[in-house]
Amino acid sequence: MAEQDDILEIRKSVRHLCDQYGEDYWLQLDRERGYPTEFVRELTTSGFLTVLIPEEYGGAGLGVYEAAAVMEEVCRSGAHAGACHAQMYVMGSVLRHGNEVQKKTYLPAIAAGELRLQSFGVTEPSTGTDTTNLKTVARRDGDEYVINGQKVWISRIEHSDLMILLARTTPREQVSRKTRGLSAFIIDVSAAIGNGLEIRPIESMINHHSCELFFDDLHIPADNLLGEEDEGFRVILDGMNAERILIAAECVGDGRYFIDKASAYARERIVFGRPIGQNQGVQFPIARCYTEVEAASLMVEKAARMFDAGEPCGAEANMAKMLASEASWRAGDVCMQTHGGFAFAKEYHIERKFRETRLYQIAPISTNLILSYLGEHVLDLPRSF
Ligand SMILES: Cc1cc2nc3c(=O)[nH]c(=O)nc-3n(C[C@H](O)[C@H](O)[C@H](O)COP(=O)(O)OP(=O)(O)OC[C@H]3O[C@@H](n4cnc5c(N)ncnc54)[C@H](O)[C@@H]3O)c2cc1C
After folding, report:
1. Three-state DSSP class for 335?
2. Distance 324 CA to ligand 1 centre (A)
3. Residue 328, Cβ neighbours under 10 Å: how many?
4. Residue 197, CA atoms < 13 Å, CB-side half-sphere
């Protein structure tokens, strides 16, 4: 783990990089539904988006604790980390479950910014959160797999060279546990499009570049299996704790962004001859949000340290994600209220961030599913589904 001085240096450098882009850059992309290609490239080549890749494969070899600091600063600057965050946690699946050939093929190229691994395909329209019930199938045929099925909400695939896909390789009726019989694959996106993979963008509330995917006899090399056949759920599950911690860190960044903005405006905006922030009706909600974001940040830090120490951290990662996503949402709401009518003006940027941070109570996992995990696995309450 980096020393405290190093973490401060990482934060300062990320802030400096983000300052080169500014909030108008993100507003323009939001309007045009554009992708921040230059920003993502710079975040990659400057080594921040690849901090988790071990040094032997060209990365910085740091932990989730440091990666969380990067993502928090990106969000705190007003940027939209949803355009690029997946590379951090998806590549963990390749690192932990890939064979040596896969690791040597992909990780150095990802670290150098030559290959983008920004996309993962799990969610399906008919099964949603019930992941182990997914319907996409991969059938072994000689030295290939043939994939058929459908996915939904698969983000960034249009801006990614590779995707990790979860598909069923053994029917659910034939496996002892429902989590078995699923396999993970590395998909070469440009080779797949037009040869069994069709992509349709989804128009959505935020600029997230999410798509529907249709697989119709897509042939991929059997060598692209990631981890063991039928054990793909573990490949995906392993990345989920990192994903939750990093998303939680982004929410802390969003929360701090909203509190900075709300406090600054409440100090400056004069109504009835005094700053609105002098009214405790304006001041207290901001102070309450500050308390909630700081508390969530402690849980993010705890979860990240446990993850990096190799300790089981499912409960902490889930709690961090829930607390931080709720705190950032409330901070966004208070920031809107503090700005009055101006909150609705796009040039103030708040309504964009408000929309963006709302996602994290739903994706990558919804609050109910976190509560159900805690109820069942931590509190030993009866299983409900
Ligand atoms: C912008 C965006 C980007 C995304 N990007 C990706 C991506 O890149 N890759 C990917 O694979 N997926 C992605 N997703 C999908 C996301 O992970 C899912 O939307 C999320 O997991 C919820 O699944 P669902 O939408 O099918 O909701 P559902 O499973 O249909 O659930 C709907 C609601 O019912 C609740 N619910 C369901 N079952 C229960 C229960 N048993 N008890 C209590 N409450 C329950 C849920 O909490 C939720 O609030 C993205 C989604 C969005 C919106």
Report:
1. helix
2. 18
3. 33
4. 25
Mean model confidence pLDDT for the chain: 97
Q: Is ligand 1 within 6 A of the CB of residue 385?
A: yes
344-364 residues labelled b (16+ CB within 10 A) or e (exposed): eeeebbbbbbbbbbbbbbeeb
Looking at this protein, which amino acid is placed at residue 279? N
Q: Classify domain 234-378 by CATH number.
A: 1.20.140.10
Assign domain 119-229 to its CATH superfamily.
Answer: Butyryl-CoA Dehydrogenase, subunit A, domain 2 (2.40.110.10)
| Mutation to probe ligand 1, out of 88, 366, 370 (largest number of atoms < 8 A from CB) | 366
Distance from Cα 366 to the centre of ligand 1, integer Å: 6
pLDDT recorded at residue 1: 66
Listed residue (144, 120, 296, 317) closest to 218, CA to CA: 144
Model-wide pTM > 0.90: yes
Residue nearest (by alpha carbon) to ligand 1 atom 25: 128
In ligand 1, the atom with minimum distance to the C-alpha of 205 is: 1
pLDDT in tens, 57-106: 999 999 999 999 999 999 999 999 999 899 898 989 999 999 999 999 99
In degrees, rounded to 5, the angle at the alpha carbon of residue 287 between the alpha carbons of residues 4 and 275 is 120
Query: What confidence tens digit (pLDDT) does each residue in 221-279 have?
Result: 999 999 999 999 999 987 899 999 999 999 999 999 999 999 999 999 999 999 999 99
